[in-house]
Amino acid sequence: MSNDTFIRRHGYLVVEGPIGVGKTSLAKRLAETLHGTPVLENAEVNPFLERFYHHPRQGALPTQLHFLFQRARQLDELRQADLFKPLRVADFCMDKDRLFAQLTLDDEELRLYDQVRAHMNLDLPPPGLVIYLQAPVETLLARITRRGVAYERLIESSYLQRLSSAYTEFFYHYDAAPLLIVNAAEIDPINNERDYQLLLEQVQKAKSGRHYFNPLSLAV
Predict the structure, then answer these.
(1) H or E element: which one contains 212?
(2) Which residues neighbour 89 within 8 Å (Cβ) at sequence distance 6 or greater?
(3) Cα(199)–Cα(131) distance, rounded to whole angstroms?
(4) What is the pLDDT of residues 143-179, one digit of tens each?
(5) Are 179 and 171 spatial neighbours (Cβ–Cβ below 8 Å)?
(6) Cα–Cα distance between 145 and 206 in angstroms, integer?
């Protein structure tokens, strides 16, 4: 498939998944391969994120609102631009923003979050394809440890388990865009060229509906 055909079919791509699964690195590489522009949430610029990991109850609401405003602004820029020149590849899906809010906020904070979001009147472009990366909690923890962000070492396995379960539930019902679900536990599409090419092939041929890519089945 030519790059122009791919862009016309998909508009823009989203790579999603829990912390540590590798979505940002994959979004960057796909953008490079497909001559596109990465649209990244840049979690490190959220001034409240480190506070959240040290003190989850005190830091949850400002952290979530900062991400909400940042993501909405980035996608609004997409809406106002020509989506098809060049291809955009994002490492976040706006539809799942409330997933973190439900996980980290208490009832009163969640009501406030919902009120703020409702008043934003979001009219955002749907992605042409969502790539959802899955991996076990042990794998996520190992990858988080390897990348060496100091405050991420405070992340507990119980939080990652709740987050992974929330992602699974969210994408079980997701039908707003074509979806490619990837078992990313045993592959390294960033440093292993064969893994990347196998995944890229699945991305390029995914059309409407729901698709699954389990690299382990190819080795059987």
Answers:
(1) strand 210-213
(2) 12, 13, 14, 15, 27, 28, 30, 31, 34, 36, 37, 38, 39
(3) 10
(4) 999 988 888 888 999 999 999 999 999 999 999 999 9
(5) yes
(6) 32
